[in-house]
Amino acid sequence: MRKILVIGIGAGNPEHMTVQAIKALNRADVLLIPTKGAEKAYLAEVRREICDRFLENPACRILDYAVPVRRADGSYEDGVHDWHRAIAAIYERTLLDELGEDQTLGLLVWGDPMLYDSTLRIVGHVRDVGRVAFGTEVVPGITSVQALCAGHGIALNRIGLPVEITTGRRLAEGWPESARDALVMLDGVQAFRTVTDPEAEIWWGAYLGTPHEILLSGKLADVAEAITETRAKAREEHGWIMDTYLIRRPAGEEEAA
Fold this sequence. Notes:
Number of domains: 2
Strand content: 15-25%
């Protein structure tokens, strides 16, 4: 039976590759590398650098595919579902046209496949369609969350307190009721500016794990403008940006107990 290997490759540093991920890379017969245009060429380049450094299987073929553009009209959920189905069709064609019955397709996933990544859902779409039988294996990877905390030298959680992992779009709708601490990913709207608690603290990072890494931290009220300006300048310089941040609000004595 064909197999899909979903391989977490880390947050942007090839040295984030685990021994398990390197072994998985070398079990693949075909590796798919997504391309997102000239502005995000770096994302494909890191994947190619990983292959150059760690791939020792001379028979493995590396294929690029252009990631379909997600439509912006209609509802957000419908746009995402349509986008996933379009990528699923690419995976399916690759399985049918490029792989033999007992060969393996490798998908190199930024960060970890379980955390705010759609690859496993897309693979599920391929399976649901049912035109090709395949097994799936997932290899975990270092996330931007880990890289953020390591860069700032902090623990993710406070003793006895939960952490809400959410998106900028959700944070902009209001602070999560279930936690005093929020770890925010996929923030295209700079939702940290909607947090008005004067005692809130932020640990922010962009291009985590890469040579372009930027780290800023402090009282949110004091550093919000600096983060906004730094973010805009970096995006203009590189043509893209990926950032992650942790916001902590003061905990009452009963919460921290």
